């Protein structure tokens, strides 16, 4: 935050955040989208982006620029400038993007404002991107989950409509369970999630089924960029945004998990942990 | 430019912009300084920085952070956020920094506003950093030129005082001759530079002498981050900033070089060309 500006900067590195064979247009799109998703979670209106670019081959550069142009058009956010560097031959390449947005008039929500008694909501679906990563690794292409993984859509309009109504908000980047726990910890509360209420796409259910294992896999997968927020039912109704109530906050600490009407043990891994 | 904001983003890559053996604190300082120098050339007041950081060893990270802290203190510009990534073992590391500043009330100068009849001025000295790079490569350390190369100081106060008075301004990052030619080309003019008037430090003259070869080396060396601007003598006097008049603009195009009262041929290389 800088006055009424919201600023975000994410980097991606070849071999870590993307693979050398990934389509360059998708890499560009995703780099823009993940930064704009951070703005969405702040209810911010995007103003522009700056790119730090490692040069590749001519064809690779052209495809990357085309993907970036598509993102610029889709999200209405201009590229304002940046820097281009050459990297040593065969070195992994890295890209950075800074996105700048204008915070909502009432201020940007953060992850620490949840209150005891708030419900926990999700806008968007959970688990598609994680499934898409698995499918992409297996050579599947062109399916809806792979598209969700490679071409995430930042929920900018939803974030702006929700921001004045919520007590806390963030985007689900590392997994629903771990991100909900982070919100609870930042707010000094406990959180309970009902696995049966976690919104999953029809495509994800068709590919991975809908048993508890599939639901747990979805709730611990990263890269979804859905919005996760703490609010009352009435406040969400006032926002006009469709959202699934997946749990709630109470005094205490920690994460509780429910399924089929009873408490279940936590999985060993709550989400994706970045370096 | 974004409203009254000035934004800049520069990346540096190991093996290209710095060497694995360079002191990490100096790398951090320089990364901040070169971005803030871009703001200085716009007459902007720095508001904050975002860092994109590739993790190294614990000791390396600690030293880098210490250098960044020194820059934050020296330039009064807070770190607002950023991103940290792990890179594959033995991969060259890269860093990006975004600096945000507030433009002066009358607007930020650019490089295209020079007018025929304007004088060309330099604030700061020319050639120290290029000489410092040579000395550092030869194993010299702790000399003033090496310090100028590793710890450049953005001329923020000078830039702010000059901005309302100049017709065009930029920082000398690739070499005086090439950057002056770029200003002339952007302004649709020709520029003449008198080599004898180019300001050089006492240390640089002591190390490299003051003959024409030394002066040409200084005028074609990069990384100085002096300010180069087009203005009238009276305007510069009004700014209160000490500056050397090194040449002037006229109708036409191209760069003319003078020394000892006569025109001399241009060197084969006018400056440092980045990728």
How would you describe this structure to a colleague?
Two copies of one chain form a homodimer. The first copy, chain A, has helices spanning 24-41, 58-75, 128-137, 144-150, 156-162, 176-187, 202-208, 212-219, 233-239; strands spanning 5-13, 45-54, 79-85, 94-102, 119-123, 168-172, 190-194, 226-231, 244-250, 254-259, 262-264. In chain A, β2 (45-54), α2 (58-75) and β3 (79-85) form a beta-alpha-beta unit. In chain A, α1 runs parallel beside α5 and α3 (128-137) crosses α4. Chain A folds into two domains: 5-102, 2-Layer Sandwich (60s Ribosomal Protein L30, Chain: A), CATH 3.30.1330; 119-264, PurM-like C-terminal domain (Phosphoribosyl-aminoimidazole Synthetase, Chain A, domain 2). The model of chain A has no long low-confidence stretch (mean pLDDT 94). Chain A contains nine helices and eleven strands. In chain A, the strands form two sheets. Chain A has a seven-stranded mixed sheet, with helices on both faces. The two termini of chain A are 24 Å apart. Helix content of chain A is 34%, strand content 26%. The first copy, chain A, is of the alpha+beta class and 275 residues long. The A-B interface holds A 1-2, 5, 7-13, 15-17, 47-48, 50-55, 80-88, 91-92, 94, 96, 98, 100, 274-275 and B 1-3, 5, 7-13, 15-17, 47-48, 50-55, 80-88, 91-92, 94, 96, 98, 100, 274-275.
């Amino acid at each position: 935050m800088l006055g009424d500006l919201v600023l975000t900067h994410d980097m991606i590195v070849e071999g870590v955040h993307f693979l050398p064979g990934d389509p360059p247009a998708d890499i560009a799109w995703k780099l823009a989208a993940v930064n704009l998703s951070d703005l969405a979670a702040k209810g911010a209106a995007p103003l522009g982006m700056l790119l730090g670019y490692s040069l590749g081959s001519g064809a690779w550069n052209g495809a990357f620029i085309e993907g970036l142009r598509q993102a610029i058009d889709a999200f209405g956010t201009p590229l304002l400038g940046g820097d281009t560097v050459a990297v040593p031959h065969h070195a992994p390449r890295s890209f950075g993007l800074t996105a700048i947005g204008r915070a909502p008039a009432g201020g940007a929500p953060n992850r620490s404002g949840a209150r005891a008694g708030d419900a926990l909501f999700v806008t968007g679906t959970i688990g598609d991107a994680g499934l898409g990563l698995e499918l992409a690794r297996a050579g599947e292409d062109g399916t809806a989950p792979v598209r969700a993984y490679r071409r995430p859509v930042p929920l900018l309009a939803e974030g702006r409509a929700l921001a004045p109504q919520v007590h806390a908000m963030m985007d689900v980047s590392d997994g629903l369970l771990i991100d909900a726990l982070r919100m609870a910890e930042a707010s000094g509360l406990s959180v309970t999630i009902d696995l049966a209420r976690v919104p999953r796409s029809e495509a994800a259910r068709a590919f991975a089924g809908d048993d508890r294992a599939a639901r747990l896999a979805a709730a611990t997968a990263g890269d979804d960029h859905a919005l996760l927020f703490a609010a009352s039912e009435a406040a969400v109704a006032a926002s006009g945004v469709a959202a699934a109530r997946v749990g709630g906050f109470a005094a205490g600490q920690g994460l509780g998990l429910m399924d089929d009407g009873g408490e279940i043990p936590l999985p060993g891994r709550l989400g994706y942990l970045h370096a």
